[in-house]
């Protein structure tokens, strides 16, 4: 009998088994202490095998990873702060995230042996800046300050990412894993993975919580397009088609000649209202088929209508990429409307006019639920990939 199941104290009758009981009690106590020790050891062993990962967010896409996909918080909340940080435990991993202009190589404490670098490699100037960070990480690896590096990279819109190759482990470099945005032909699901572009966090696009009215209210417009119309692009064709049939009267259309990186408060509010007030969001190709608008529309339950054509460059031209462009979204079963040519739009809008509010509500629910599942799946995949790569394996 264990020492915990003795009779109530104060039972003073003589007990012929008292001697045996005492030694049993001692043995029991020893067993109990040995168990405690074992649990403690197992716990500390668990803490040893569990992973500490520090994410250095040096590109705006880091905020999509942390706040939208991980649902993480940042302190201080002020987006203009010089230094912002957050942390959370997920799976076997403790993640911490730092971002802001004050996060500079050599001027902050490296608090984990495993680092995820979030960088922008979209154009020459950004690549120069990104390589400084990579060289800093390489020095930390060489001096044994850190063990593993994963990279989340905003790729080039034409997928010209040759510069990153020498940094990868497979080419003799030190980067274990690469998560890259756009349909890069070298994605192999082993050490190179496709990552979603997400929303324009550099314009402070928020994490949107679905509300009752977002799901259930009738919306004033069939569709929306607020954006730059480039000369000789399919966006010009789109404008012509909308004007032809007076469809521009049924949609919220606000074209502009020049791309503007910085929104004014007014233009940003307009854009959010347009997403919230339209059942469909038109997504013509820009330099790449994948654009922030796709994810921003999902946030507000406005169904993306995507011009599903390959853009010039090296994005997924290999035979493996039969479902490019937007391989990642298609693989995940995105419930969007894909069209090859804007001439198909009038038929799409005709069908739209005939849909009941009830049908639209169901579609919005399905879209928002899909988007939430998509983010949860990306988060899990990210964690699993890091753990499989960084944790010591039990294979002898």
From TrEMBL:
Residues 53-196 form the RXYLT1 N-terminal domain. The keyword Iron-sulfur does not apply. Residues 1-24 are annotated as: Disordered. Transmembrane segments: none annotated. GO terms for biological process: protein O-linked glycosylation via mannose. It comes from the Eukaryota. Keywords: Transferase. Pfam families: RXYLT1_C, RXYLT1_N. GO terms for cellular component: Golgi apparatus. InterPro entries: RXYLT1-like, RXYLT1_C, RXYLT1_N. GO terms for molecular function: ribitol beta-1,4-xylosyltransferase activity. Residues 202-391 form the RXYLT1 C-terminal domain. The keyword Transmembrane does not apply. This is RXLT1 xylosyltransferase. The gene is Rxylt1.
């Amino acid at each position: 009998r264990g020492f915990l199941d003795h009779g109530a104290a104060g039972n003073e009758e003589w007990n012929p088994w008292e001697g045996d009981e005492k030694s049993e009690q001692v043995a029991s106590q020893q067993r109990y202490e040995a168990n405690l020790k074992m649990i403690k050891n197992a716990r500390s062993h668990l803490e040893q095998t569990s992973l500490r990962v520090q994410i250095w967010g040096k590109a705006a896409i880091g905020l999509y990873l942390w706040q939208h996909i991980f649902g993480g918080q940042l302190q201080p909340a002020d987006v203009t702060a010089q230094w912002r940080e957050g942390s959370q435990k997920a799976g076997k991993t403790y993640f911490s995230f730092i971002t802001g202009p004050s996060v500079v190589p050599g001027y902050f404490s490296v608090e984990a042996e495993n680092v995820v670098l979030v960088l922008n490699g979209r154009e020459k100037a950004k690549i120069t800046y990104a390589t400084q960070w990579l060289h800093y990480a390489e020095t930390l690896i060489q001096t044994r300050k850190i063990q593993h590096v994963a990279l989340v990279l905003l790729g080039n819109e034409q997928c010209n990412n040759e510069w990153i190759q020498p940094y990868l482990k497979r080419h003799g470099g030190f980067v274990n894993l690469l998560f890259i945005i756009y349909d890069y032909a070298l994605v192999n699901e082993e050490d190179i993975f496709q990552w979603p572009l997400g929303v324009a966090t550099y314009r402070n696009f928020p994490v949107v919580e679905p509300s009752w009215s977002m799901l259930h209210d009738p919306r004033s417009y069939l569709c929306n397009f607020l954006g730059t119309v480039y000369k000789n692009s399919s966006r010009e064709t789109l404008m012509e088609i909308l004007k032809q049939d007076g469809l521009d009267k049924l949609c919220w259309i606000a074209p502009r000649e020049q791309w503007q990186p910085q929104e004014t408060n007014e233009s940003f509010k307009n854009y959010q209202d347009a997403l919230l007030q339209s059942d469909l969001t038109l997504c013509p190709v820009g330099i790449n088929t994948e654009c922030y608008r796709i994810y921003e529309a999902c946030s507000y339950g406005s169904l993306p209508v995507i011009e599903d054509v390959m853009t010039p460059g090296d994005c997924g031209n290999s035979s493996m990429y039969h479902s490019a462009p937007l391989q990642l979204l298609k693989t995940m079963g995105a419930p969007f409307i894909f069209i090859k040519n804007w001439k198909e739009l009038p038929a799409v809008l005709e069908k739209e006019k005939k849909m009941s509010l009830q049908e639209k509500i169901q579609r919005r629910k399905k879209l928002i639920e899909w988007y939430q599942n998509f983010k949860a799946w990306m988060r899990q995949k990210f964690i699993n990939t890091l753990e499989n790569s960084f944790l010591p394996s039990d294979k002898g």
